[in-house]
Design a protein that fits this description.
A 3-stranded antiparallel beta sheet has the order 1-2-3. Helix content is 56%, strand content 3%. Helix 1 packs antiparallel against helix 8 and helix 5 packs antiparallel against helix 6. 43% of the residues are buried. The chain has 392 residues and is mainly α. It binds carboxymethyl coenzyme *A. The site of carboxymethyl coenzyme *A has 20 residues, from loops. One of its GO terms (cellular component) is cytoplasm.
Length: 392
């Protein structure tokens, strides 16, 4: 096998060169296209950050307007695609619905599948940015057995999504500005994170020259796993279980430290951050603010704070450099906003979409790109000879 090195989980192996996102895991630094995450979270908007990630620069007012209006022209779904969504069982997980529907975009929008034609790449980019929130809201409505709403293009992306998720056809829906602002900010925090599992999946699928819809659909499946984006709902389930068990937080932490039944402190630890995840710091601050503004008093927040306090002092976590990651506090905010737990990872997917698209486009445009094809170290049987059935 020549010079093949074993690197399980790609801990040390870079798969590409990228200009999009910079992380310094020891210092807890995250920047999109050079801009620090806290500046973007405070001063920018999700749509603007999406533009920045995909096209490389902050937009002028004109460029941003044009981007917005192109997106708003594509927010509707093909009516037949809705039939497909209607056929899924009501208790289907919305992440499965989301991925299936994005995959199906490749059957409805065949005029934007070419990876060689920049106009088609642009069209599939806009279609995804426009339609993912609509699909996500439909997936939620479907799970509730509630009527679907058409997009209202007088609203911005986040407001439109909130209305389609929580509104009803016969009633006016007033978007709560606190919720809209908070959700927009959370989408910014999730918008890219260099070569994480789902992004690497998007790039790997795309490296075979599969189209953008196929690549993003694969990325959504990767994100659904509890070690990745699925952690945000797993955190809430964990907090809920601790609360219901009536056990004290220390008892749960002992289980984690003794690795009983493989119990982990969900929302803690990260492959790259060996310091406080800067996104978690922002989300934590926001959890307090949003819940206070909305008058929500959730005992699960107290449990989360207590878990963090213990972990930051405990040798098990300290020696392994385990800190809260982005998923630790976001679920509490989503819950306060009224989202059911199953929707949390869908929200992560909406936020991560511009990052996936930017990374896919960078890969497609990079002349150095080759099909992704890891090697292996074979440890199976050496050559042996076929035994007839009656001799086995
Ligand atoms: N709770 C308890 N122990 C942990 C945890 C945790 N959350 N995370 C890591 N460890 C331990 C792990 O058991 C190992 O211990 P030992 O050295 O005794 O074998 C050590 O810390 C190193 O961990 P690792 O599993 O080798 O680290 P990794 O880089 O392979 O995994 C991770 C990173 C994020 C998958 C992992 O920390 C984890 O499973 N965390 C919980 C799930 C989670 O919150 N995922 C969200 C990640 S952030 C953003 C996102 O993708 O959504």
């Amino acid at each position: 096998t020549g010079n093949v090195t074993l690197d399980v989980g790609f801990v040390n192996t870079a798969s590409c060169q990228s200009e999009i996102t910079y992380i310094d895991g020891d210092a807890g630094i995250l920047r999109y296209r050079g801009y620090p995450i806290d500046e973007l979270a405070e001063k920018s908007t999700f749509i603007e950050v999406s533009y920045l990630l995909i096209y490389g620069e902050l937009p002028t007012a004109e460029q941003l307007d044009a981007f917005r209006s192109r997106i708003s022209r594509h927010t509707m779904l093909h009516e037949d695609l809705k039939d497909l969504l209607a056929a899924f069982p009501r208790d289907a997980h919305p992440m499965s619905v989301l991925s299936a529907a994005v995959s199906a975009l490749g059957t409805f929008y065949q005029d934007s599948l070419s990876i060689k034609d920049p106009d088609q790449i642009e069209l599939s980019t806009i279609r995804l940015m426009a339609k993912l929130p609509t699909i996500a809201a439909y997936a939620h409505k479907k799970s509730q057995g509630q009527p679907l709403l058409y997009p209202d293009n007088s609203l911005n992306l986040v407001e439109n999504f909130l209305r389609m998720t929580f509104g009803f056809p016969a009633e006016p829906y007033d978007v709560d500005p606190t919720i809209a602002k908070a959700l927009d900010m959370l989408f910014i925090l999730h918008a890219d994170h260099e070569q994480n599992c789902s992004t690497s999946t998007v790039r790997l699928v795309g490296s075979a020259q599969a189209h953008l819809f196929a690549s993003i659909s694969a990325g959504i499946h990767a994100l659904s796993g509890p070690l990745h984006g699925g952690a945000n709902s797993a955190v809430l389930e964990m907090l809920g279980e601790i609360h219901e068990s009536g056990d004290d937080v220390e008892t749960f932490m002992n289980k984690v430290k003794n690795k009983e039944d493989g119990v982990k402190l969900m929302g803690f630890g990260h492959r790259v951050y060996k310091n406080y995840d800067p996104r978690a710091a922002i989300a934590k601050k926001f959890a307090h603010e949003v819940m206070e503004k909305m008058g929500v008093d959730d005992p699960l927040l107290d449990i989360a704070i207590r878990l963090e306090e213990i972990a930051l002092k405990d040798d098990y976590f300290v020696s392994r450099k385990l800190y809260p990651n982005v998923d630790f506090y976001t679920g509490l905010i989503y819950k306060a906003m009224g989202f059911p737990t199953e929707m949390f990872t869908v929200l992560f997917a909406i936020g991560r979409l511009p990052g996936w698209i930017a990374q896919w486009r960078e890969m497609i445009e990079d002349p150095a790109t080759k099909i992704g094809r890891p090697r292996q170290i074979y440890v199976g049987e050496t050559e042996r000879h076929f035994t007839e059935m009656d001799a086995r």
